[in-house]
## 1
Amino acid sequence: MTKDDIKQVVLDIIADIAPDEDLTTVKPEVRLRDQLSLDSMDFLDIVMELRKKHGIEVPEADYVQLASLDSCANYLLPKFEAKGK
Amino acid sequence: MARGPIGKGKRGAGFDFMASGHLMEGRQMSSKPRIVITGLGLTAPNGNSLGEFRANLLAGKARIAVIDVRHMGKHPAGVCDFDTTKWQKRKELRIGTRVGSISIFCSREALSDSGLDWDKVDKSRVGVYLGITEHGNVETENEIHNISQFGNDTKYWTHHHNPRTVANNPAGEVTMNMGITGPHYTIGAACAAGNAGLIQAAQMLQLGEVDIAFAGGVSESIHTFGIFAGFKNQGALGAHEDPTKASRPFDKNRNGIVISEGGAIYVLERLDDALARGARIIAEIAGWCINSDATDAVLPNPERQTECVHMALKRAGMKPQDIHIVSTHATATALGDIQECTALRNVFTDCPDTKINNTKSFIGHCMGAAGALELAGNLPSFEDNWVHPTINIDELDPECAMPGLVINQPIKVARVDTILNNSFGMLGINSALIVKKYGVA
């Protein structure tokens, strides 16, 4: 799995939890909350969906790593690799 | 009916409630502000507007689906098909509850119907009072099912559970959607909840706690298997090979309740406020009573129901002969229908102008929404003088025979000025609400 694949995984999750948002213009380096209408409960949804769909655990102390698509990819890549994905 | 000063003032003119008290001698509610209905929004299994709902009631059109109930298979149920995205974003729908969505749709439709200039309304003076039979079962069952897919590990339990299941959820979702900052809460009153919501709102308006109230009843009960299983194991779940005939109150072969979802929410105001803004007044709240059987958790007590109706009449300053339509609660259970008929026969003796009908025969039992929806379907009678029937009676149960029962076909009457709306519920809660046509003496 590449970093781009992981960004798409996160975008697919966001598409489900924020279905009114236009995700075609999301900038990977910009904080998601600065360009999308997402609140803390939505980020918990991202954490939950990573757990349910991919078996990936994100400890609370690491939530900050999910700030942008780029930071998501950097943080999640070794976790996906550890899962053999 | 005792005479009051209604209909004397022109729209836009002020009204002196205290001065009118002497004209309503004998009314326990005479010294309190008069409360009127100025808007209505609803979703029922057979209609998403009052016009559609009413047309189907007069045409004898039931609409009951067959749904797949988790763990239980196919059962008849009343399903609403309103446009969920008319007033909510898809994200709101995902986060919120089904009953929250029903509540928002009905409240927004009621607001549109009321003609209120919402931008100019002080939202801190608006209250939301919604009756519910139960709440939280749907979301709790869904989560139990969800974590069962993950070895019952509670780390998969949604963080949305608590805001979805707090008892004020339906009313709270309305306030968030509409920007209402006044009070909001639900009134848990079993299947008397629709009336209870309206009564609560009328009381809060009379107390001056709010200036505008969104009130009524709502239900999402078809989405919880527990209520189906509970009624089935109680021997009270209705069934028929034709789902539209499954709900058949007063029929000799009735076999129980058809569970439905729905909502009916009204805009209520004090009469003087409604007149001052030139509002269309749909009806006036004339009287009410809520009491308790204090006898059995499920078997209704006709003696207490009789007392409830008598007290509502007394508070309205009316006698039984003044009531033109009795909207019954009857749910098509073997004993419940007979108990209500016994109570009604106790009250409505020698009442040639009193007609009796039932709405559950069309839409099933909408639980928390039942009373509010059943009242709504009868309100147009004030204008058209038609009384919709109770349908699905192939053979009238002799124990449910009552003079004035309108069976299978609507009837035209000389006038309809008053409606008595009965709603009763488990744990022996009884409610009777009387509304009258505005402007009649």
## 2
Amino acid sequence: MKCDESEVMLHALIDGELDAGHARDVETHVAGCAACGEKLAAFRTMHEVMIAAPLIETAPAHLRNRIEALMATPASRVVSIRQFMQPTRRSFFGGFAMGSVLSAAVAASLVLAVIRRDQDQTISEEVVSAHIRSLQAGHLMDVETSDRHTVKPWFNGRLDVAPPVVDLTAESFTLLGGRLDYIDGEPVAAIVYQRRKHVINLFVAQHLGRRHARTIADSIQGYNVRHWSQDGLDFWAVSDLAGDELDEFVQKITSALQQPSRAS
Amino acid sequence: MADDAVAEQERMRTFQAAALPHLDDVYTLARYLMRNTQDAEDAVQECYLRALRHFDSYRGPAMKPWLLAILRNVCNAEFARRSKEELPTDYSSDEALAEEMPMWQEPQASPEKMLVRQQDTATIKRLVAELPEPFREAIVLREMNNLSYQEIAQVAGIPVGTVMSRLARARAMLRAAWNAAETTTTRPGPAVASGTAP
């Protein structure tokens, strides 16, 4: 990567908009380029100062009241501001076209692999749905075994990635088996664990949501969701287990994956 | 008829629950686009009026960028109506624009000025308000409204690649002004000449 490219890309890095591959490219360049490294540090500091500062304005009370009054008026009687609020005011908003408010197709010159932020939300919801489905339909496992050396090969030929399967029995997370599932229209590996009566579905795929440096926590419909990226794979853990116990599970998985002998 | 009234009330409630939580975000963008409080408030009200009218056809995406896009249209139309010279945001070429922007050429700062110094909130707001369009808008949507690049692209009606280059330029300008500004400067900027903050 060259400096002029990095100068644009480092902002996407700061804003968490890059996928793992592009993020690595920028980081590699910045590590070897003092000028870009300095820029990244400065812009990151500026960004952090700005998001920490209370920059959002509070709408004044009289404006809020006006808007609320607007909503209390039947739609048929709602008219534009110049007749409704300020009859004497000059034609303030006269003659503007609504236009296409949000054109459906954002222009195609997407030169960079930028991933939508709300994609995570969609996938969170799908992951929770898949978790619920797996419990309801009596289809929790395609391969039912506590032997990680059986689970992992089962995915061979069913997926284009080999999901790591970790045995956490010693940490009282029992491996129940594995299942092929579909998230966002793509086949993913679902590895099923249990603690006490609580089932944990761990979904693993190559591209499933945005890449994050750290674990993202969410809670949907009473289910706890954790999402992180590791070794080029995306992981989504879902369970009705308490948040801190699911965090413990995530922590065990991530540290086991850092020791190759523990995962197969 | 009673059923219609109930349905209408239900629709209003739905709209209110979806749209009202974003009022501060909409108002904030309006303050930076309109540059005076009265016009900003009128634009916000017009925005909500239009949103209410079009709410039946709203199918997503997220409510916040949808509202901000409407607000932006309202503000741009008002500028267009007032004066074509003032038209602030529909540049055909960012590249041509950037050439007119000497601040894109970062000053040769001394090493201690290379990083970012601490600035208070009032100064940050003033510096943002002093940025030229369309860079001001890009910064506000990103750092204040907290939109993703995709959402900024939708609101501003530009490709994501343009969002990235605009933000890079906007931040470079802002950083230069930021480091040049005295922290003690507290006088309000042009966008904040009257009324409350920014």
## 3
Amino acid sequence: MKSGSNLEKILSQGKFAVTGELGPPQGSDINIIKEKSKHLRGMVDAVNITDNQTAVIRMSSWAAAIVAIQEGLEPNYQMVCRDRNRLAMQSDILGAYALGIRDMLCLSGDHQIFGNHPYAKKVFDIDSMQLISMVKKMRDEGKFLNGDDIVEPPKMFIGAAANPFGDPYDFRVFRLAKKIEAGADFIQTQCIYNMDIFRNWVKQANDMGLTEKVYILAGVTPMKGVGMARYMQKNVPGLDVPDWLIKRLRGVEKKKQASEGIKICCEQIEEFKEMKGIAGVHIMAIEWEQRVPEIAEQAKLLPRPKV
Amino acid sequence: MIIAKVKPLEEIKDMVKDYPKVLNVGCAGCTAVCLAGGQKEVDTLNTQLNSSFKADKVSFQVDGFTVERQCEMQFLAELDKIAGQYNAFLSMGCGAGVQFLAERFPRIPVFPAVNTSFVGVNKDIGWYEERCSSCGDCVLGITGGICPVTMCAKGLFNGPCGGPEDGHCEVDKDIPCAWVNIYERLKEQGRLENILKIFPARDWQNQIQGKIILEPYKKRYIK
């Protein structure tokens, strides 16, 4: 075992893993995390705790992750390269591990221009690839980036992101290969809507032998309605929302669109369960945590295995 | 070259308003080429300042003098004889020029009239774009002549991130994605292997003031 986390155990035993997502509050009210945790407990194997997502200030991801642990969830601690240099990153990783965090997702981070402090100075001292390597070095060699020894090295199960839909499409699978080489144990993908492109990407990964080296969790975000689908099609960088999906949502009356969105999401999950090279699903129900039990139930993901 | 842009008139006025006699020092180097701080721009700014203060009924006089380059002491020496006539200097050189001018005349307040913006190129008349961040450890040989530090909004060394669409950066549709371009160019040159391997975390060279003394001169300057 690399970290011995619940997520690692589930995946290494070949069970179909389920992860969720919890965005920390834009304030210091712990009750908001507790409330969101209630909906996720028992529904997922680990829950991503986002790190100032979309560059909007929120409670620090490690602090919210600790609350999640207290609420009976396993956090997947997200860390972005936008806000911290290598000193801050390594010290936060030590602290996170000391307090019981065992899964970690290494990301570049959204550019600060999208957030609520658009003229903050960006850091990007290292990028996501280099962050993955650094966390692996800390774990496997027991050394900091500079080569100094760590007393009691942090042993994280290392996650990375992949976007099969970004430009240049032909390079995406090679970027996945680089992340695996850097040290990623598991991959969580961008929200998938265009299944044709995704199937092709997974096939490439299978053909290159990559899916034998890494666990890929397919990312899904249920659409709440036509408005959200159109917004994501037009405004979210790196997302591919096909027209058929919008058409299908439009085909049902407004009140039933959310259920239709969940239905589409569950159909995708059913396919992922059977898809060669896919080890689990990452459900990103953005500010919609209360619907996760319904999705987990409908997609026949329950009960979650005890390992 | 260094690209600069003239500051708003009100900001310049606010800096010099308490000094009745000011010398506006132009630079015939980079800031002249990018039409921000050469002799012509000195004349234009001086006309604006003189007429604007006159309208405000404030006693003010500004003269102009453009040196070859403000980043060379020998050219700044040309000001030695006239400097004493002025209460303050405006500089239309880049930030390096402003500081060197201030170093030459430490008793005279110096105010910048331009904002030094970046190291860039002349895309077309009046159109300048950044190309270099002076990071001190050039990787252009690996990245197909496209700088990931400057041209990628996140300065990624192992890009592209998940954001590019139709070849443009996620932060702005008018900005091309550096990593899409790096990929396309290296593919064209048959050198894609350059970016298939991981680029390790780098030792940033520009974290303290830069200083270069050429080998043959070391004896002269380093005691």
